[in-house]
């Protein structure tokens, strides 16, 4: 099993990352994919991946909520930096649109441009694209439609009326502990074919009052087994295999 999306570079883990990694291993995880969403965190993220080589893998991007903090030149520069990291990252993302946190029209337009830059880079480097979308689903879908890229994982997917669309495109979706509380997410999981599903935590977030961590995907797998009326072991194995295949990780699921 693999946590395909969390943020180990967050300061929440500064004190005890070793223990967090240990607990993940004890829970049976074979890998964690950490997501660096801000250029300012890139060095720290690379160091973490180096330290836990073979267990922690990295995706990197400029998250849409951070777009307003950077100039066009800085973004251009960062994209070049990402291109140079081709062999150190396993995916581009999370990239996309976030209209929940960013209300300014001009910045939303910039988010769209930056999203396109990430898609183009993912295609060029032949790496998976990890999508983030919040209150911006129609535009996110429209931009993905502009490209014909098949290696797409929509993280934290929760768009009920886009399930068929997702399946048609063969895009993947990952689910986290919100599944334990959200009827919408349960309905989506029920409809989605198992081969498109992966597990994530988005930790340290989504701990509902306390810090979340990768070992929590165990609970997410349990819920998926319940919703899809499958046995736990089958869910655990399938989601792990899906992740290894999608990210082409050189490990066994
Ligand atoms: Zn995230």
Shape: globular
Q: What is the average per-residue confidence, as pLDDT, rounded to a whole number?
A: 97
Main sheet properties: 8 strands, parallel
What sequence of helices (H) and strands (E) makes up the elements?
Answer: EHEHEHEHEHEHEHEHH
Task: Provide a descriptive summary of the structure in words.
The chain has 253 residues and is of the alpha/beta class. The protein has a single domain (2-247), classed as Alpha-Beta Barrel (TIM Barrel), CATH 3.20.20. It contains 9 helices and 8 strands. The chain has helices at 17-26, 42-51, 72-84, 105-125, 137-146, 163-169, 183-191, 217-228, 232-247; strands spanning 2-6, 31-36, 56-60, 91-98, 129-134, 152-155, 172-175, 197-199. The protein is globular, with a radius of gyration of 17 Å.
In short:
This protein is α/β, with parallel strands linked by helices.
Q: What are its keywords?
A:
binds zinc ion; 16% strand; eight-stranded parallel sheet; 253 residues; TIM Barrel; alpha/beta
Note the topology.
Elements: E1 2-6, H1 17-26, E2 31-36, H2 42-51, E3 56-60, H3 72-84, E4 91-98, H4 105-125, E5 129-134, H5 137-146, E6 152-155, H6 163-169, E7 172-175, H7 183-191, E8 197-199, H8 217-228, H9 232-247
Parallel strand pairs: 1-2, 2-3, 3-4, 4-5, 5-6, 6-7, 7-8
Helix pairs in contact: 4-5, 8-9
The structure holds zinc ion.
């Amino acid at each position: 099993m693999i946590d395909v999306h969390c943020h180990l570079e967050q300061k929440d883990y500064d004190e005890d990352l070793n223990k967090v990694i240990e607990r993940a291993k004890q829970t049976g995880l074979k890998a964690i994919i950490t997501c660096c969403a801000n250029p300012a965190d890139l060095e720290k993220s690379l160091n973490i991946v180096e330290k836990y080589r073979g267990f922690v893998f990295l995706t990197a991007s400029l998250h849409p909520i951070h777009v307003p903090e950077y100039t066009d030149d800085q973004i251009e520069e960062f994209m070049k930096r990402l291109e140079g990291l081709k062999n150190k990252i396993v995916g581009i993302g999370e990239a996309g649109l976030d209209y929940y946190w960013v209300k300014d029209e001009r910045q939303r337009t910039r988010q769209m441009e930056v999203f396109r830059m990430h898609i183009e880079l993912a295609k060029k480097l032949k790496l998976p694209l990890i999508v983030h979308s919040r209150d911006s689903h129609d535009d996110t879908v429209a931009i993905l439609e502009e490209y014909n890229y098949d290696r797409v994982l929509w993280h934290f997917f929760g768009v009920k009326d886009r399930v068929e669309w997702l399946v048609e495109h063969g895009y993947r979706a990952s689910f986290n502990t919100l599944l334990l509380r959200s009827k919408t997410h349960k309905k989506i999981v029920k409809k989605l074919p198992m081969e498109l599903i992966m597990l994530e935590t988005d930790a340290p977030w989504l701990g509902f009052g306390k810090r979340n961590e990768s070992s929590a995907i165990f609970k997410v797998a349990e819920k998926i087994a319940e919703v899809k009326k499958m046995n736990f072991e089958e869910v655990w194995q399938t989601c792990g295999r899906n992740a290894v295949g999608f990210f082409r990780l050189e490990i066994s699921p």
